[in-house]
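Friendly challenge for the regulars: who can give me the structure tokens for this chain first? No prize, just bragging rights.
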Amino acid sequence: MYWNNIDTGAYEGMLAETVTVAGDNGDPIHAYYSRPLHKTGVPGLVLIPHMPGWDEFCREVARRYTQHGYAVICPDIYQRFGTGHPEKVSADMRAAGIVSDASVMGDVKGSLDFLRSQPTSSGKVGVIGMCSGGRHAFLAACTIEGFDACVDCWGGGVVVDDPSQLTPGRPVAPIDLAADLSCPVLGIFGNDDRNPTPAAVDKLDEVLTSLGKEHEFHRYDGAGHAFWSSQTDRYRQAQAVDSWEKTFEFFEKYLS
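First reply, four minutes later:
Bragging rights claimed.
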């Protein structure tokens, strides 16, 4: 049990702030960076924003992982489309044709390098994302060297059955790169989700199994997309708490 497993007599402190990191092509981009205070040998997480944008929910997720001992960096992968209210920036991004995979991977690589360069880093880094960020997390684990663990939370578009869905910005289905997956993967999915559908999750599971890739999937009845989002009616308390526990266990296993 990880939730509320704290010592009330122990010191606890964290620092969370906006920093600048070198993203794709060396572009300076904003990132939300939270880390424990007065600790060394700290494992890191790159948290990739979801489709609603670089928003308050992303910051909340970052701080929760920091409370459990992780340095977390969440890059603003949509910054090139403007700044301002997250929903508007995300809408502007979609109107422009969706942020490209190449741009996101460049920002993720820069975030990974930033975490590894910190004097308090243990050298272990994982990657996690929800929704489109889950897809990006899986893609990063297949294309970027250096990640030790990957968590894909309901990432739609990892499996692409219709080639017409591929675009110049998203030229490859991440599942087609699964042979290059470089670290263990944890998948968190709702069985009522429409993207990814249960059939798509089945296919991803089958492909990873056939390739001998280390992975574990947890699939929840009564939950659809974004069931961690307590600010929306998609939230499912029991499924969210159980799956949060699963991610803590997974990251402790591979990053501690």
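The beta strands are 14-22, 28-36, 42-48, 71-75, 121-130, 149-153, 185-190, 215-220. The chain is about 30% helix and 20% strand. Your move, everyone else.
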